[in-house]
Amino acid sequence: MQQNLPCNLKIGLIDSGVGGFSILNSFLHRSLPGNSHYYYIADSGHLPYGLKSDRYIYQRMLALTQYLLTLKIDVLVIACNTATAVSVDLLRTRYPELPIIGVEPAIKPAAEMTKTMHIAVAATESTLKSQRLSNLVNRYASHCTLHPITGTKWVDLVESGEYLDSSVVDKILAKSLEVVWDYPVDQLILGCTHFPFLTEAIIRHIPERVSLINPARSIVAQCDQRLSEIGKLASLDSNNQTEGIEPQVHLTLMTTGNMDNFKQQVSTLVSPHYHQLRLQRIDC
Question: Which residues are catalytic (predicted)?
Fold first, then answer.
């Protein structure tokens, strides 16, 4: 019989909605030497971040981070490009002892891989207008032409579940992706954590020359590196040497929005690689 052991590693994740499940799924597909507990907050009651002011987004991130700190998380992953662009530096300043991993459009790898020097980035309006994105482009892709694609409607497709309806998806994506046919784009950056759930549909509407860049796995690697630097992964290994006991993965998935909708989203978007699942609505 499998024993319920203490959870030795606690990882917090925040997104404006359920797009960050694409990051969570990447975590769930990797193995750890000990037990882990993921606390995910979907701030669906305050969607969409992409159309909110910077001040509003930061205040939401501050409140949700404070909530996760009461759960004694070891690391925070801001599983949202828009929230990262607005708040990651401010949160790192406020909580210098907390490892905080942000998600940014993968400008650097796209600039390194492009052969045509034409890169497209699909993101929310807030991310596309952010100084953080501008800084990334100036630093890594000043030699490239950047083609922005506003993906606000893409976010809505995932949040509403309409991404499963190909007739609806195809109409929206065909219009949004015209730029990759009008210009010799060969790299398309998925600059929002919602967008990997649209991968199959996106591929139907882009030329074969275009590569999709999804940063999810690199976020997991970055998180593990940071945990290694502070000795957390080493302690996880040394504390779990009991033979014959499989490490357990616990999920606590929380929403500030409608619970019925959230249950449906979890059932279709979250990988089943876990042992225990708890769903919860929070007022925060």
Answer: 80, 192
| pLDDT score, position 217 | 86
Q: Please indicate whether residue 144 is annotated as part of the active site.
A: no
**CATH (domain of 119):** 3.40.50.1860
Quick one: pLDDT at residue 7?
59
Pick the catalytic residue: 7, 144, 192, 223?
A: 192
What range does the domain containing 243 cover? 8-103+216-281
Q: What is the pTM of this model?
A: 0.89
Q: Which of 80, 144, 223, 284 is catalytic?
A: 80
Alpha carbon distance 10, 250 (integer Å): 9
* 80 among known catalytic residues: yes
Vertex 271, ends 64 and 187: CA angle to 5°? 85
Is 12 known to sit in a ligand binding site? no
Ranges in the chain, pLDDT < 50: 1-5
Identify whether 1 is part of a domain: no
Beta strands 249-255 and 145-150, pairing class:
unpaired
What's the number of domains the chain is made of?
2
Does the annotation place 81 within a ligand binding site? yes
